[in-house]
């Protein structure tokens, strides 16, 4: 009889204590779709006497957020619709960039970037590791993103970095090997 009473009292005590422990429901990872109208990758390539500017539009993509923190994502870059924006480059440079010397858009009209890891270094800054697949080959690309805005409906981040184009298989013997890139990524639920 004493054992039964102690067992009931113990159960009641544990149930009472458990009822005061706050229950934090784990939010599910949220998927946001990339806004292809607002997102793009700007580039600047310089040579001894001039520079050229342009951008790659994004074709599609998504990011995953866990408690408003970036956890992953994948993007499709529309190489076939790349744009040269400086007057000195124009249609001639656009055409050359689309050839096998550079992006070979007849065979490879798209590239992808998939996030493989995210490490926040502050509330609004994250080191991102990912894989760029371009012209049938994959390359590791690390960048630092500035998270400009995030809430339950929208996400906006930017990354500015330099890239030696020969490290991603673009080996045309031209003067501009170092390319400056600016990624502008908008996504929403």
Overview of the molecule:
With 189 residues, the chain is mainly beta. It has one domain (27-188): Lipid/polyisoprenoid-binding, YceI-like (Lipocalin, Beta Barrel). Helices cover 14% and strands 52% of the residues. The chain has helices at residues 2-20, 90-97, and strands at 30-34, 40-46, 51-66, 69-78, 83-84, 110-122, 125-134, 137-150, 154-164, 178-188. Strands 1, 2, 3, 4, 5, 6, 7, 8, 9 and 10 form a ten-stranded antiparallel sheet that branches. Strand 7 and strand 8 form a beta hairpin. The longest helix is centred in the N-terminal third of the chain and has 19 residues, at 2-20. It is elongated and about 55 Å long. The model is unreliable at 4-14 (pLDDT under 50).
